[in-house]
Amino acid sequence: MPAEGESWHPAIPDTPFLHHTTRRDTMGNAGNITGWITFFIGLYAIAAGAGEFRRPGYWAKMVQEVRVSSALQFLTGMFTLVLGATIYLVNPWDPSDLLSILITVMGAWIFIEGALILAVGDWFLNFAGKLMGAGNRLWAVLSIALGLAAIFAAMVRLQI
């Protein structure tokens, strides 16, 4: 890091936004990863809810299509398992932070969901299909509301 008032590169003049940026301010560090995971989960929930609200039965149809295809079951199970494991391992565990606990538990549940799809996909997807078939608009509204809450929590955490 250059001394105060010196440029970090001879051809680029010293500017405050370059000079004062620290590693802590960047994305993806332990201090803010929970916020970013929460933010992107919120975006996902809003998009998924909007898709179901726009076309009721969309989720149930997806579950039905995955249920009848062994290849889709395997790919869905693997993707879900890896996504859950990644969230679980990347998110820092802080027993004093409720959002950190919630995201870690969510990562563990997503991992378990992927493992269930791989191990007993027919049973698990049959159960999921029954859940998705009932109250389509209710699930969509709930997904959008949870997505908005997640984005709000993330913005508070990230101070944006």
Q: How would you portray this structure in words?
A:
There is one protein chain. It contains six helices and no strands. By secondary structure, it is mainly α. Helix 2 runs antiparallel to helix 6, helix 3 crosses helix 4 and helix 3 packs across helix 5. The chain is globular.
Question: In angstroms, what separates the terminal alpha carbons?
Answer: 27 Å
Indicate the mean pLDDT: 85
Helical content stands at over 70%
Poorly predicted regions:
16-23
Structural class: mainly alpha
Number of helices: 6
Shape: globular
Oligomer: single chain
Succession of helices and strands: HHHHHH
* Main β-sheet description: none
Number of strands: 0
Rg result: 21 Å
Q: Which terms summarize this structure?
A:
single chain, 160 residues, mainly alpha, 6 helices, 73% helix, globular
